[in-house]
Amino acid sequence: MQWNLRMKAAERGIWKSTEMRRLLAEAGVEISAGKMSQLWTGTPNIVRLDELDVICAILDCEPSDLLIREPNKVAERRPDRQQAASASSAAPVVAPRFGNRRSEPPL
Asked: In the predicted model, is pLDDT for residue 53 greater than 90?
């Protein structure tokens, strides 16, 4: 996923993370300076849904405007089907054991 917060904020005339953080605080969401920096400068690993809801309300957008799918990157992560087939054919063959292979008890 691509995180598109800065672009959507710029479309609403918000150019600084401190301004966005202030607007979030006015809406009742306190975000630390470190987390705001992560939201503003990169792609965060975690975004709480209540924070996402307030961000969307402030920017007058939908979550899909902030989270942009990247299907090409997903396809690159998938193993190639031919590679997977050759890997499974290279697996050792397991032979079944028949009968009782237990040792006899001592006399």
From this structure: yes
